[in-house]
Amino acid sequence: EAVIEDGTLVVSGRRVLPPQLRTAVIHRLELPQGRFERRIPLPPGRYDAVRRVAGDGCLIISLRKVP
Fold first, then answer.
1. 54: Cβ–Cβ under 8 A, 6 or more apart, which residues?
2. How far apart are the first and last CA of the chain?
3. According to the model, what pLDDT value does residue 31 have?
4. DSSP 3-state assignment of 19?
5. Which of the ends of the chain has fewer CB neighbours closer than 10 A, N or C?
6. pLDDT digits (tens, 9 = 90+) for 7-61
């Protein structure tokens, strides 16, 4: 989820273990799992739309600034 709150972009979600690792015997795991949240301060101004595209482990967020 990506929303704008008080001039801050808030990105949150949940990382889950990939299906191929769910049945594996794991001795040490360095991939973070669980809920996460990042807060990114935005430059002054009003922002209209938040568009999200996810794929191949990347998240692209586009914001449109209102004149």
1. 60
2. 25
3. 66
4. helix
5. C
6. 899 999 888 877 887 788 888 877 677 898 999 999 988 887 778 888 877 888 8
pTM: 0.68
CA pair distance 46, 66, nearest whole angstrom: 5
For 29, the 3-state DSSP assignment is coil
Which pair of structure tokens corresponds to residue 23?
């049945």
Distance CA 37, CA 46 (A): 22
> In sequence order, which residues have a C-beta less than 8 Å from that of residue 52 and are 6 or more positions away?
2, 59, 60, 61
- Structure tokens belonging to residue 20: 């191929």
